[in-house]
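Audit log entry. Action: structure prediction of a protein-small molecule complex. Ligand: 2-acetamido-2-deoxy-beta-D-glucopyranose. The ligand was supplied as SMILES and no pocket hint was given, so placement is left entirely to the predictor. Protonation state taken as written. Sequence taken verbatim from the request; no trimming, no tag removal. Recorded inputs:
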Amino acid sequence: MIFLYVLALAAVFIQKGETYTCYSGTDVPMCSSCGGGSCTSDNGCICNTDPTITCVPTSECSSVGTNICCPTGYYWSSGDNCCTATLICSPACKSDEICKNVSNVATCGCNTAVYSGYNTSSLSSTVKCTSSVMTVSLSKCLLEALGYDSTTFQLNNNTDSCVNTYTETVGNVTMQSIQSLVQTGYCGNIVTTDATKVYYSNVLHIGIQNKTIITANPVNISFTCSYNLTMQTSLTSAFKPTLNSVNMTVNGQGSIVTTMAAYWDSQYTSPVQQNQDVPVGSNVYLGIFADANDVSKFVLRVENCYATPDNNVNNVNKVAILSGGCPANQGVTAQVQENGVSFEARVQFNSFAFQGQPLVYITCDVRLCDRNKTCTGCNAARSGEDGTASLQIPLNFLDDYSSSAANTDVPSWALLISTLLAYLSMKLF
Ligand SMILES: *[C@@H]1O[C@H](CO)[C@@H](O)[C@H](O)[C@H]1NC(C)=O
Ligand SMILES: *[C@@H]1O[C@H](CO)[C@@H](O)[C@H](O)[C@H]1NC(C)=O
Ligand SMILES: *[C@@H]1O[C@H](CO)[C@@H](O)[C@H](O)[C@H]1NC(C)=O
Ligand SMILES: *[C@@H]1O[C@H](CO)[C@@H](O)[C@H](O)[C@H]1NC(C)=O
Ligand SMILES: *[C@@H]1O[C@H](CO)[C@@H](O)[C@H](O)[C@H]1NC(C)=O
Ligand SMILES: *[C@@H]1O[C@H](CO)[C@@H](O)[C@H](O)[C@H]1NC(C)=O
Ligand SMILES: *[C@@H]1O[C@H](CO)[C@@H](O)[C@H](O)[C@H]1NC(C)=O
Ligand SMILES: *[C@@H]1O[C@H](CO)[C@@H](O)[C@H](O)[C@H]1NC(C)=O
Ligand SMILES: *[C@@H]1O[C@H](CO)[C@@H](O)[C@H](O)[C@H]1NC(C)=O
């Protein structure tokens, strides 16, 4: 405490701009003696009359304000607008650092005294979660003071970019950070879900400094990001969801990724996975969404949906499910639950099968509709500028259980178990 107080006094003392002895041009000329200087933070200062000669600035450096403008052994004092022989770090060190003389270079280093009396239980991580990235950070100087080596950060899986650690400044403290993408298995992420959320967890492993006296044990810090379970987030956490994504281009909006997937539930949070069989007559929920970050002027509207026994959209057996944004009433029971009001569209229909065909291909024509125009209802007039796309997914619709066994080339335990699990998770929902 006393130490901090003295430190604060010292800081005030320096900030007052106590006059230091300014360098006056013994070895390197002053810029004022060569027509003034031009200074950059990369190259320091050069004479205006002869750009091959470096010079020592006075007021010329005030906009650059770093030691690069000063000769070796001199340091920029912004209070005095000159280079002085007194050690000064520019830019100023962080609140838990001190300015050190490392081979005549003023370098900010950790001030371990700030963290005396701290122990491993003081280690607390900051976790930042965005829709695609998780970032975990700890104070670099606290780690150093406790005997840890902050450059040893690594996640559960140390391959890929999972050891890429970097520093950033947060509130005048240097934080050591590492990132993982919000993806199942990435950097060893573990994903779990409950009724309303999906959780991504990982473990940060921190090693100790390589020195004779060991003051700490390597430590593992778990961290978790949670996201609301939605049409979108349930796809990233699913093992092998049945989905299709396309880029839609709209005038002046660049490309907007739009995705269609099938779900088991009316919350649109339990995706139908590849290899899962959907019994004929059950409810299928088609969820279609556009990348929310990009969609402000537009809403997503499903125009048509139809089923074919193969991926040829012109197959003669084509059956319409939705037409002009509304149920087509061609023998398939369908219901439009949301269309043309947000970046998501929701369509429910009853599954059916083509005689003797294991797969049903569902294709939907979608468009991004100008929010200011009519985007809801049946046969809404369309504007020529709207982006359009077709999305297609294959689904296993089974008309009875025996054909399921017949259609499976090699019934494997894995497949059987995953089907059972899917069935169980259906029951749970
Ligand atoms: C950070 O803290 C140091 C010392 O407490 C101070 O000199 C410096 O001006 C601070 N920097 C910022 C950006 O607040
Ligand atoms: C910095 O250290 C060097 C030796 O490495 C020494 O010659 C020099 O005087 C020191 N400068 C200051 C300002 O302490
Ligand atoms: C760590 O420090 C706190 C007080 O700051 C103390 O209560 C705790 O017992 C210490 N833990 C260990 C392992 O020394
Ligand atoms: C780590 O990731 C790599 C590539 O993503 C993968 O091949 C490897 O099996 C993973 N290791 C562990 C232990 O999960
Ligand atoms: C630790 O330091 C010693 C000597 O300074 C060196 O020989 C050894 O390779 C270092 N070990 C690691 C893991 O860096
Ligand atoms: C940290 O994790 C590593 C790898 O999973 C494990 O070998 C080690 O025992 C763990 N250490 C602690 C202190 O839990
Ligand atoms: C998550 O869901 C809760 C409750 O439904 C809601 O209040 C909250 O705004 C949602 N958060 C996000 C980021 O959508
Ligand atoms: C969409 O286009 C962007 C670049 O325009 C590309 O980076 C991205 O991978 C594309 N996504 C899909 C799903 O095709
Ligand atoms: C919709 O109308 C608002 C003002 O009413 C306008 O600022 C906006 O640009 C319009 N959007 C499009 C896509 O034309």
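Audit: result stored. DSSP finds five helices and 24 strands in the chain. Residues 210 surround 2-acetamido-2-deoxy-beta-D-glucopyranose (ligand 5) (CB under 6 Å).
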